[in-house]
Amino acid sequence: MTPHQEEGVKNFLKGIALEWQQKKDLFDEIITIYIGGGTPSLLAPKQVEELLSLFPKASKEITLEANPNDVTEEKMRAFKEAGINRVSIGVQSFDDETLQRIGRTHSAQKALDAIEMTYKAGIENISIDLMYDLPEQTLTSWQKSLEQVEKLPISHLSLYNLTFEEGSSYFKHQKKLLPLVPKEEDSLAMLEMAVERFEAFGFNRYEISAFARDGKVSNHNLGYWIGRPFLGLGPAAFSYTEGSRFQNAPHLARWFQKVTIGEDPTFFKETLTYPNNILELFAVRLRLMEGVDLLDFPTLPEEALKTVEELVDQELLTKKDSIIQLSKRGTLFYDSIASAII
């Protein structure tokens, strides 16, 4: 690290401690801890240990996001000793040409090595991210990535397609990239191929984009989907509690200045009122493959219930007794379904 980076890390860790002191009374219990955003694996294990020492020891799932380039067996062993028991590795693809096209600096072999070294270090709960719909990605290159999954000592994977979200590097170059992404029929074939392969490898699809083996679901992400309150610490971090969601100031210096003088670093706050709060939670819970029990939503507006029935008629949703689930076809059109309900 450069001296400038070292100073930034020092301020980050100090700021987290100060912000936690401000907000720790908001939560009686901590279920999961997730160290993510940016590249947290650049932190030294001792710094992660310092970070984790701030919080109660009750949390059973403590995840660290890792870039394949930062992983060594020695470092992951030290992270485990610091308290990390789950690692999420940003693989994206096991095809070197695809990785180069999307600007990733690691190779496919580096990603494979990172997974193996993490497992050898004693961290057995490993998640990876894979992406499809990438520029010039073919069914053959995608199949190559999928074939690697069966051999890996991983328990979880997240599957994403390329989206051009405002503010992302992809958004800035979308005019150049859009003509290069796979056609719609190839995109669908990639998704269906992935779901079929993952299930054959013993991964259960428990959410639209998430698959787990041996019951090792992401309890942290599950909290988002069921509407469990969560607290985000640090610059640009999001939180949700008492029916409101808020975001911290997005820049390290501004966030650090706020917490240093004892001010709330909140940059944005939104409180959803009825019926929007109920409609949004219902739609988000539909992401789970187990579906939603209407009995848990006794105040769901009549108009929304009518929409649900229409979506059942269109075979986008299924209904059995009071349980509403996405149909196989519905998993392909979740965004449209959610928009219709909300």
Write up what this structure looks like:
The protein is 41% helix and 18% strand. The chain has 14 helices and 13 strands. It is globular. It starts with a helix and ends with a helix. The mean pLDDT is 92.
Strand and helix map with partners:
Elements: H1 3-23, E1 32-35, H2 45-52, E2 61-66, H3 73-82, E3 86-92, H4 96-101, H5 108-120, E4 125-132, H6 139-149, E5 156-161, H7 169-172, H8 174-177, H9 184-200, E6 204-207, E7 210-212, H10 219-226, E8 238-241, E9 244-248, H11 252-260, E10 266-271, H12 276-285, E11 292-293, H13 302-313, E12 317-320, E13 323-326, H14 334-341
Parallel strand pairs: 1-2, 2-3, 3-4, 4-5
Antiparallel strand pairs: 5-7, 6-7, 8-9, 9-10, 11-13, 12-13
Helix pairs in contact: 1-11, 2-3, 3-5, 6-9, 12-14
CATH topology group of the largest domain: TIM Barrel
Number of helices: 14
Count the domains.
2
**The named CATH superfamily of the largest domain:** Aldolase class I
List segments where confidence is low: pLDDT < 50 over at least 5 consecutive residues. Answer: none
For the record, the CATH class of the largest domain is Alpha Beta
- H/E element sequence: HEHEHEHHEHEHHHEEHEEHEHEHEEH
Shape: globular
Question: Order of strands across the widest beta sheet?
Answer: 1-2-3-4-5-7-6
- Summed over residues and divided by their number, the pLDDT gives a mean of 92
Give me some keywords for this one.
342 residues; alpha/beta; TIM Barrel; Arc Repressor Mutant, subunit A; 2 domains; 7-stranded mixed beta sheet; 3-stranded antiparallel beta sheet; 14 helices; 13 strands; globular
